[in-house]
């Protein structure tokens, strides 16, 4: 059974060139060519490929955004890049494969051998891929938007529209004025990407946007609640209160 693959690149000639090279390998079948990150997310949802050749530099959603949106559903990923030396170094450190443009036949052959070996061993490379993504996102901090995927749909939420974020096991619930979004992400990871001047973790299970804070209510000696402008209230822990006092 050929390995199902998708190609993601905003440049049509780059997609065609890579597809031409991949067609020489009988063990590979390309099920979709995607010209942007949103199409890639939908293609993964629709075709469930085992491998994704992913360009890093694309408009709107770049390669890292695509991985962020796919989460655990991301297939084995081979990054394709023209010149990003820092990214290449990161990939090497995390044992991820990559291809430099223009892609050579010999380098692609080595990559496909590695892909076959990993798939035969049941190794999808998820752990290094997720750690690399976390490292990249933290280097980009503070972020100004949060990407959320619900099945094949993608939502881009400006952090200024986020009122509060709550933990829910391996997910977070993101509250805005219009609706709630659920994203596969740990609260601690998201906290590291947010602007500490705008967001405060007031409890192990919640972060609030300080722009929406209307007051702090105290009940008894230890029980405190953050009152938000939308009428919601969130429990404030002792350490969370200390953080609030520090930033207000």
Architecture overview:
The structure is a single chain. It is built from eight helices and 15 strands. The N and C termini lie far apart (60 Å). The mean pLDDT is 89. α2 packs parallel to α3 (63-70). It has helices at 12-22, 37-47, 63-70, 85-93, 105-120, 126-139, 187-193, 238-247; strands at residues 3-8, 28-34, 51-55, 76-81, 97-100, 145-150, 153-158, 162-168, 171-176, 180-184, 199-203, 206-209, 213-219, 223-228, 233-236. The protein is an alpha/beta fold.
Give a quick rundown of the structure.
It contains eight helices and 15 strands. The chain is of the alpha/beta class and 248 residues long.
Label this structure with key terms.
alpha/beta; single chain; 248 residues
Number of helices: 8
User: What class, by secondary structure content?
Assistant: alpha/beta
What do the pLDDT scores average to?
Answer: 89
Evaluate the radius of gyration.
21 Å
Taken as a percent bin, the fraction of beta residues is 25-35%
Helix content, binned percent:
25-40%
Low-pLDDT sequence parts = none
Shape: elongated
The biggest beta sheet, please? 5 strands, parallel
Q: What is the terminal-to-terminal distance?
A: 60 Å
Q: Give the strand order of the largest sheet, numbering strands 1, 2, ... along the chain.
A: 2-1-3-4-5
Q: What is this structure's SSE topology?
A:
Layout: E1 3-8, H1 12-22, E2 28-34, H2 37-47, E3 51-55, H3 63-70, E4 76-81, H4 85-93, E5 97-100, H5 105-120, H6 126-139, E6 145-150, E7 153-158, E8 162-168, E9 171-176, E10 180-184, H7 187-193, E11 199-203, E12 206-209, E13 213-219, E14 223-228, E15 233-236, H8 238-247
Helix pairs in contact: 2-3
